[in-house]
Design brief:
InterPro entries: Ribosomal_uS11. The protein has about 170 residues and is α/β, with parallel strands linked by helices. The chain contains four helices and five strands, in the order H-H-E-E-E-H-E-H-E. A hairpin with a 5-residue loop joins strand 2 and strand 3. The N and C termini lie far apart (about 100 Å).
C-alpha cells in the first residue's frame, strides 16, 4: 500500500501548489481506464469493402492491417466476365467472406465501405455480409457489426486549374 505524502514532501519536490496527490491518483486512474478501453477496442477486426466500377473486393483484417481472409467477385466460380459487375456478384462475394469470417471465429467487426457507387449497392453488400456471417443462426442473434464507416474520398473542388492561355490577335 503506497504511503501518503506529507506537506513537507510536496514542498521538497516543488509541488507545494500543485494540489493534493489524491487528485493526481484520480487522473492516473482515469488514464489507466482509457488505456484498458483502447486495448479492448484494438482487438476488433475490420472488414474492408471496396466497390469499384468493374469489381468488388471484400477483405477481413485485424486491427494492425494483417489480412485474415478476403475475396473478389472474380474469384467466385460462377461469376466470370461481365457477370461480376452485377449487384448480385457483390452480394455473393460479401456473403462468401462473411461465412469464412464466421468459421474463423470473429466476434465483432467494424465495416469500412469505400466506393463511389449508389448507396443501395453498399447497403446490400453490408446486409449480405451480415447474413453470411450469421448463417442459419436465426434472427435473434446480435449483429457482429459494431459500426459502419464510409471512407469514400470526396473531392473538395480539386486542384486549382492552370492559368488560361492568352493569345494575342495580330491585325493584318
Amino acid at each position: 500500500m503506497p504511503q501518503e505524502k506529507t506537506g513537507t514532501d510536496t514542498y521538497r519536490l516543488g509541488l507545494s501548489d500543485a494540489g493534493s496527490f489524491k487528485s493526481m491518483n484520480f487522473v492516473q486512474s482515469i488514464s489507466e481506464e482509457d488505456e484498458q478501453l483502447e486495448q479492448r477496442t484494438n482487438k476488433r477486426d475490420l472488414v474492408h469493402v471496396l466497390l469499384i466500377q468493374n469489381n468488388t473486393f471484400v477483405t477481413v483484417t485485424d486491427a494492425r492491417g494483417n489480412k485474415k481472409t478476403g475475396a473478389s467477385a472474380g474469384c467466385l466460380e460462377e461469376r466470370k466476365g461481365r457477370s461480376r459487375l452485377s449487384r448480385y456478384a457483390a452480394e455473393a462475394t460479401a456473403e462468401h467472406v462473411g461465412r469464412s469470417a464466421r468459421k474463423m471465429g470473429l466476434q465483432s467487426v467494424v465495416m469500412k465501405v469505400k466506393g463511389s457507387t449508389y448507396f443501395r449497392k453498399k447497403r446490400k453488400v453490408i446486409l449480405s455480409w451480415r447474413e453470411g456471417f450469421r448463417g442459419s443462426g436465426g434472427v435473434g442473434d446480435p449483429s457482429p457489426i459494431l459500426y459502419i464507416n464510409d471512407v469514400t474520398q470526396l473531392p473538395h473542388n480539386g486542384c486549382r486549374l492552370p492559368k488560361k492561355r492568352r493569345v494575342q490577335i495580330v491585325p493584318f
